[in-house]
Amino acid sequence: MFLRRLSFINEGVTSHKAYPFSIPAFKGLDFIEFTSNVTFFVGENGSGKSTLLEAMAYKCDFNTAGGGRNNFYEVPSSESAFGDFIRLSWAPKTTNGFFLRAESLYSFASHIDNVGSEAYYGGKSLHKQSHGESFLSIFSNRFGKKGIYLLDEPEAALSPARQLSLLRIVWELELEGKSQFVIATHSPIILAYPGAQILDFDTSPLSQTSYEDTSHYQITKGFMQNRDLYLRKLFEE
Q1: What number does CATH give the domain 3-235?
Q2: Buried b (16+ CB within 10 A) or exposed e, 16-33
Q3: Residue 183: beta bridge partners?
Q4: In the chain, what's the furthest Cα-to-Cα distance?
Q5: What is the distance between the alpha carbons of residues 149 and 152, in angstroms, rounded to a whole number?
Q6: pLDDT tens per residue, the chain (237 residues)?
Q7: Best CA proximity match to 87, nearest among 1, 8, 180, 185
Q8: List of residues 6+ apart from 55 with CB closer than 8 A
Q9: Is the dihedral of CA 30, 69, 156, 36 positive or negative?
């Protein structure tokens, strides 16, 4: 592991009623200890997962629009609202890594074309690959150096089979002792990665939970086992 702790800095905060300090998951929280090479952020939309992941990317000097330390381009609303209010503790520190934002992948792909770096992503423009293929090209070609990888909803473009492919890539990199991952996800498939730390942003403050206790697992399992019941309740007038 490289990243050991994330601390919250209250100095300079003028109001805890203003966003993002008003997010329930962060209230009363002094720090987060990372206990695994793979950590998942889970929770409903708006629970603070992406906000914290962007802040971490900012502190790692990654482009908060998506990319690594040497990817210079801008997209609207890519700044980090929380970046100056956290501190990352490393042992040892790594400067290698990547921040994946599913929502801004198109802009990242255009940036790669503009700087002529297609060779580092499988030798083919990301724009000339399907959405899912472009994600896997990044995972397979850009990941690999000793580093930390921050992924915001990587399942957005991946079929269930491709999600399993992502798990294989994560496993291979962790097995080699080279990489650490922090992943915000809604996917019960990705969440099933063995030995991962899971942090639940739907509690206040956020807390550690188990795979079987996540709403993602429980709802998916309940639906698969009682599909007719779920649909009947969903569509009843």
Answers
A1: 3.40.50
A2: eeeebbebebbeeeeebe
A3: 40, 151
A4: 58
A5: 10
A6: 899 999 999 887 877 788 888 999 999 899 999 999 999 999 999 999 999 999 999 999 988 877 766 655 465 545 567 888 999 999 988 888 889 886 666 566 666 666 655 666 666 776 666 766 777 777 777 777 789 999 999 998 889 999 999 999 899 988 887 799 999 999 999 999 999 999 999 999 999 999 999 999 999 999 999 999 999 999 986
A7: 8
A8: 80, 81, 82, 83, 85, 86
A9: negative
Residue with tokens 């790594």: 94
Cα(152)–Cα(140) distance, integer angstroms: 17
Question: How many Cα atoms within 13 Å fall on the side-chain side of residue 159?
Answer: 5
The ranges assigned to domains in the chain are 3-235
At 193, the amino acid letter reads Y
Find how far residue 129's CA is from the centre of its chain: 22
**What pairing do the DSSP bridges indicate for beta strands 38-42 and 147-152?**
unpaired
Q: Is 107 helix (H, G, I), strand (E, B) or coil?
A: helix
In angstroms, rounded to a whole number, what is the distance separating the alpha carbons of residues 192 and 194?
A: 6
